Structure to design on (237 residues):
């Protein structure tokens, strides 16, 4: 008899994401000091600026999501990641959870590339974390539980994003939309497209992964495409 696979009981991917973010922040502090981690060469090589992406530095669409401007910035984001991620990871499974996180991160970067001010320098895990908020909302709706608490959290954070200076509202909203869409692809799409006689866990998983791959390509394509057609100002560091 084959051994039975058990679902993970600890949010290992969430712990790993927090560790990576903290490690990169620590390296930036070692290079530039705790007062100005944004001055580190690691930071300048990975932050998100439209003209840099237009120059072909497409990795910034991803790496910007692992950089932070200050101790408070990284602390708030990592606390939020822990609170949201620990339950979502166990609900979705490690693979799907990481896919939703990555798609939300790239969706936030795409929104910045498409709509943000040319001078805006963007960094932080907030876009991905807003994606986790969207994911939590979709799961709550699927479970037919009152969405009011999650809606209040999302609403409060959106208002905060508009109220505080230096916050990438567009990155947050892009992450929220793509995170919610990715989770909806997992929990709603299989029932919508599979005939009743073919609805089984294997088929549902295939549909979900195909949709996740499509959203990943869309988010990445929008970010790269915005860079390719960009003809605005070139920012000299």
């Amino acid at each position: 008899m084959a051994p039975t696979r058990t679902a993970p009981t600890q949010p290992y991917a969430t712990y790993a994401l927090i560790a990576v973010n903290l490690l990169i922040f620590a390296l930036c502090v070692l290079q530039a000091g705790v007062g100005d981690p944004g001055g580190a060469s690691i930071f300048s090589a990975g932050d998100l600026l439209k003209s840099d992406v237009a120059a072909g530095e497409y990795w910034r669409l991803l790496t910007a999501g692992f950089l932070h401007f200050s101790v408070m910035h990284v602390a708030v984001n990592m606390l939020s990641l822990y609170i949201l991620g620990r339950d979502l990871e166990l609900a979705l499974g490690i693979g799907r959870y990481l896919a939703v996180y990555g798609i939300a991160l790239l969706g936030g970067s795409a929104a910045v590339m498409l709509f943000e001010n040319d001078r805006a320098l963007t960094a932080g895990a907030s876009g991905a974390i807003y994606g986790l908020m969207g994911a939590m909302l979709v799961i709550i709706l699927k479970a037919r539980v009152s969405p009011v608490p999650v809606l209040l959290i999302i609403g409060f954070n959106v208002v905060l994003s508009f109220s505080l200076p230096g916050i990438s509202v567009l990155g947050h909203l892009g992450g929220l939309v793509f995170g919610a869409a990715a989770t909806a692809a997992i929990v709603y799409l299989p029932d919508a497209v599979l005939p009743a006689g073919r609805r089984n866990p294997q088929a549902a998983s295939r549909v979900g992964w195909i949709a996740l791959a499509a959203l990943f390509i869309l988010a990445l394509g929008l970010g790269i495409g915005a860079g390719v057609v960009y003809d605005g100002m070139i920012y000299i560091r």
Remarks:
- Residues 1-5 have pLDDT under 50 and may be disordered.
- The chain has one domain: 12-235.
- The domain at 12-235 is CATH 1.20.1540.10 (Rhomboid-like fold).
- The first helix runs from residue 12 to 32.
